[in-house]
Amino acid sequence: MEFIWILFAFACGLAVKLINLPPLIGFLLAGFLLNYAGLEPSNTLDSLANIGITLMLFSIGLKLHVKDLLKREVWASTLSHMGISTIMFAGIALLLGTLSLPYFGVLDFKTAALIGFALSFSSTVCVMKLLEESSELKTRHGQLSLGILVMQDIVAVIFLVAATGKVPSIWALGLFGLLLIRPIINKIVDKAGHGEMLPLTGLFLALGGYELFYLVGVKGDLGALIFGILLASHSKAAELNKSLMNFKDLFLIGFFLSIGFTALPTLSMIGMSLILTLVILVKYALFFILLTKMKLRGRTSFLSSMILSNYSEFGLIVVALSVANGWLEKEWLVILALAVSFSFVITSVLYRNVHRMYRKNKDVIRRFESSDCLPEDRFVQPVNSDILVVGLGRVGRGAFESLKGFVGDTVAGMDADRNRINQMQADQENVFYGDGEDADLWERLDTSRIDLVLLALPAAEDTTNVAIQLRKANYTGQIAAIARYQDEREILINSGIDNVFNFYTEAGTGFAEESLALVRPMDNATPS
User: Fold this and answer.
1) Is 474 exposed, middle or buried (0-12, 13-18, 19+ CB in 10 A)?
2) Is 187 exposed, middle or buried (0-12, 13-18, 19+ CB in 10 A)?
3) How far apart are CA 64 and CA 138, in angstroms?
4) 26 touches 178 (CB < 8 A)
5) Any idea of the CA torsion for 146, 147, 152, 153, to the nearest 10 degrees?
6) Which residue of 170, 240, 402, 473 has the fewest C-beta atoms within 10 A of its own C-beta?
7) Are 211 and 221 in contact (CB under 8 A)?
8) In the 3-class helix/strand/coil scheme, how is 239-279 assigned residue by residue?
9) pTM to 2 decimals?
10) Using one digit for the tens of pLDDT, what is the confidence trace for 424-450?
11) Is 378 helix (H, G, I), strand (E, B) or coil?
């Protein structure tokens, strides 16, 4: 039976990838096809899905800092959006009921509000997958979106306590003691090394956090998230997350398959779910208005609103509880499951083109900006810099340090990870915060003095986008970039990049040259 799941997931995932769509759309389709074929889900599939979600929340925690949740644009926008959207969606549901549409006509204000509340959540799974695939987790809009999702999770915990009547155990107060044992947790990660023990340690902490919180009557998923947050400042947090990435992605396939097993829909259910899917436009508009009112830049508001405009798997939990308590008809579970699936597809397709959409409509979007943006969203001009390194991860940081040794302080660095920039600025490094894919940044940045831009970004698509925006901003200097695979080289060259270095080939060449100098130093200095 498990092989059938893998077969369908592989076939559907590959099929949609061949037409340039995200594989998760294929996994959703596979679930519905398996259900239509009459196959029954087993406990194994549910276990895989639960482990995938737990690891995903642990990974979110590794990238999140508590101070980010305390920012007004995070908590205020989340609570305002959920409150307003619940009322608006409830009103829309009651209005549709007056039109005698199937399943809407029997709703009263209480049940309509429950559906509105379920629709107010955004999907953590969908958002995380898209941000990871586009390497935007550390960007301004990526961190903002993650903060909003975490705040929604906190609201979810409060709802579950209220709806189920299960008050956490008195022992739950002992969870605050986790702050005291944080040094011990850090020590465990230190001792795990860099091999197979590191991902095993991550699994142990993620699942252990889940079980610990569950035992004291608190939502287990929140435990995985908290354990991740406790390790967010650890020097190995990024390495730990990378070691878990493939495990998490494989387990999450079970989650996408499980959605399709919710129930088989009728035509009327599909029609009603499509109507709910259209309400995403209201969700997007509300997010965009609130975020711009919080003095965020138009681009940040646009990208965040776009990726958060979907329905959440938690909405299924809300409706399932409502069905179990007799508040809603069981058909609503199918309708919402379809709406969640459709919203995943729409968000996945649109977000892959979101930067192109912004470039085409930036003049209109900027009209909604506040004249006094938040300090974090203001641009900084690098001073006295002839060379700019974009992306200060391991490769970019190495290039930055080497260039600094050759040309001194005339090299500047830029990165979209604000925490990394703050650490480097504390060390008196010539670096500044900036998202390379931000069209506004290149328009407002004076690049006339910069002779060379090095793009040390992990994804070829991101590198291509930055190069195109640089040229559109009338940058006339040289652009160099790195590529991990040979087939990426031609794509990067065609985007306007002057020189592309194959990461693995160049690393091997440099290693060979420096090693050879140890045994043949005179040969290098003697002309042949």
Assistant:
1) exposed
2) exposed
3) 9
4) no
5) 70
6) 170
7) no
8) HHHHHHHHHHHHHHHHHHHHHHCCCCCCHHHHHHHHHHHHC
9) 0.77
10) 999 989 999 988 888 788 888 888 889
11) coil
